[in-house]
């Protein structure tokens, strides 16, 4: 008899909580995601999210990926004074927050307590990178007017922290906190360790205070290579996600660095989005071998392309059901 049949079927929440503790699970928790295009509607966002994560693929984590950006013009800051225009948000009036709350409330009503819900949040520095006309402009302002940039980042961090408190109060179980810039300087968009510790880390930590009551806070370290992952391992998070196949920073290597739950195993631009099925299975089985299947969630390292054929995602979900854990 298959060993997996020994265990009673868990709810999604029970399965993910057990994985975080390192306990036995009835099967490996699984998740994957891509971006939707709800055009600003919180209700439409919720409907698309529910259809994908619950109805189509029966995934263990429902990850909300809103398309309403932080309310500051993209690529608009070309001179230092532009950073002085970043102000505290009126969260009760801002669609940026209110549509997210509407999404969470709808999903929680539909899913009950048996499915974890996480809200995607970009780090303060990530948002700032979107506001600057380009990466070099932000880097120059960091050198020429660090106090002005610090003040802007502090305001963004407080806005995000206050928003995350509302997300959790509305029913989210945590946040998917995505950060950029924590890479070596020789990587596109990389700040290097010294500058990240100065301009990234303090504001990441300030923002994350708003998610302190969550039990499923996922830290996503974004980048194709040169990740300064040691710089962020002391953050308050429950799950660590990064592009383990793309960056060359393996699950096995991170298992030696942290006792936190790891999330990954599939190359988001590889077999998961292009096939064949045998390669999807091989990556999943290799991920189990690297982690022992404990404190592990099988997932993509970052978003799969939006036009990924569903046949490969369906195959991945079927494979997750069949995996055996040591």
Describe what you observe in this structure.
InterPro entries: Methanogen_methyltrans, UROD/MetE-like_sf, Uroporphyrinogen_deCOase. The chain has helices spanning 12-21, 42-56, 95-111, 124-131, 135-144, 146-170, 193-199, 201-208, 244-247, 251-255, 271-274, 277-291, 310-322, and strands at residues 62-64, 117-122, 174-179, 218-221, 239-242, 261-266, 296-300. It has one domain (3-322): TIM Barrel (Alpha-Beta Barrel), CATH 3.20.20.210. Helix 3 runs parallel beside helix 6, helix 4 packs across helix 6 (146-170) and helix 12 (277-291) packs across helix 13 (310-322). It has a 7-stranded parallel β-sheet with strand order 1-2-3-4-5-6-7. The protein is an alpha/beta fold and 326 residues long. 44% of the residues are buried. The chain is built from 13 helices and 7 strands.
How is this fold's topology laid out?
Elements: H1 12-21, H2 42-56, E1 62-64, H3 95-111, E2 117-122, H4 124-131, H5 135-144, H6 146-170, E3 174-179, H7 193-199, H8 201-208, E4 218-221, E5 239-242, H9 244-247, H10 251-255, E6 261-266, H11 271-274, H12 277-291, E7 296-300, H13 310-322
Parallel strand pairs: 1-2, 2-3, 3-4, 4-5, 5-6, 6-7
Helix pairs in contact: 2-3, 3-6, 4-6, 5-6, 6-8, 12-13
GO molecular function, one term: uroporphyrinogen decarboxylase activity
Pfam family, one: URO-D
GO biological process, one term: porphyrin-containing compound biosynthetic process
